[in-house]
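Attaching the record inline, Q. Sequence:
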Amino acid sequence: MQTINSIGVLSLAKMSAAVNAIFGLLLMPIFLLISLAGAFAGARRTPLSGAIGVAFALLMPVFYGVIGFVSGVIGGLVYNLIAKWLGGIEIELMPPQSVPIVTSATTG
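Structure, as predicted:
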């Protein structure tokens, strides 16, 4: 068993930002449909409410990415602090499998 004693905070933050931004992209169409349906569902139909919903939907991946980055920084810092006290996460790693190199011999 090996132990993860410390996590690269910036590395975790970048990965968290990327994953959350992708979730924002995946959820954007749903948010667009809901905001447009809400804009036309009320008794007063205001086009501005639909435009605001669309603007928020388009910015959703950016918001998710920023929130992911900040939560990654905070999560990494908290993990590193707690890992000093509790010892970190134990994992078992296998050595990489060696792949035999196959060469073709040509005869002349």
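The CA atoms of residues 69 and 79 lie 15 Å apart. The chain has a mean pLDDT of 86.

More tomorrow.
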